[in-house]
Design goal:
alpha/beta, Rossmann fold, globular
């Protein structure tokens, strides 16, 4: 695993102003894996993704992606290196229609999905191409936010709470999409409150509490550790 790690995070510490949020986060994501960060609200999961992406002004430690140290890089340089973040708030531009939102991010390397492949994953988007982005349903906006980063060719996708507030049928569709993306060779780092959803798609899990990783499980060991997870998460 250590040799095959696509992303390696070591002693990651982050601050918002004077507030110390991450206190030495350590984990790895192997190429082609789906890895989930679990934890209660305020555990530091979203801050971890933003810190990897360079969106936190003050951070220390090490973030190594494909052998390249990124801790001192800017967020746009990190995006060009091949890491793409789909934020919890989705970031759909109200002044742009679906096609314009979809085409906005530039490719960072070969291997991104073309529009035909994206419409196979999200047929709703093809039907709504001329609609204003923020006029879509919550589920369609989430599809658009994910689809947008698939065009870039970034091999590591970070998805922050992709199922939050969505209907069960849309959650199921997003789960199937993640499975298809993994089959296509994408690596996915997922932050998710919906443990049932995460338990069906992830290879490995890290549990966060108070800005630290406090435990880790494989998919195969989940059943044996459900009592622990209940204590950690209240599931």
């Amino acid at each position: 695993m250590a040799e095959a790690a696509l992303l390696r995070v070591e002693n990651l510490q982050s601050w918002y102003g004077e507030s110390h949020i991450l206190h030495g986060v350590n984990f790895e994501v192997g190429k082609g894996e789906v890895v989930t960060l679990l934890g209660r609200n305020g555990a530091g999961k979203t801050t971890t993704l933003k810190s990897i992406q360079g969106m936190v002004a003050r951070r220390t430690g090490s973030v190594v992606f494909e052998g390249q140290e990124l801790i001192r890089q800017t967020s746009n340089a990190i995006a060009r290196a091949g890491i793409a973040l789909c934020p919890e708030e989705r970031g759909i531009f109200a002044s742009l229609n679906v096609r314009e939102n979809l085409m906005l991010p530039p490719p960072v390397r070969p291997g991104g999905l073309g529009l035909a492949e994206i419409f196979e994953l999200f047929p709703n988007l093809q039907e709504r191409l001329s609609s204003q982005g923020t006029k879509l349903s919550g589920g369609e906006q989430q599809m658009l936010a994910i689809a947008r980063i698939l065009r870039t060719g970034a091999p590591l996708l970070m998805l922050d709470e992709p199922t939050e507030g969505l209907a069960p049928v849309i959650i199921e569709q997003i789960g199937m999409t993640i499975a298809k993306l993994k089959a296509k060779g994408f690596t996915i780092l997922l932050v998710e409150q919906n443990f049932l959803f995460a338990s069906k798609i992830a290879d490995r899990y890290y549990v966060m509490e108070d800005g630290r990783i406090i435990d880790a499980f494989t998919a195969q060991s989940l059943k044996a550790n459900m009592e622990k997870l209940h204590d950690y998460l209240g599931v």
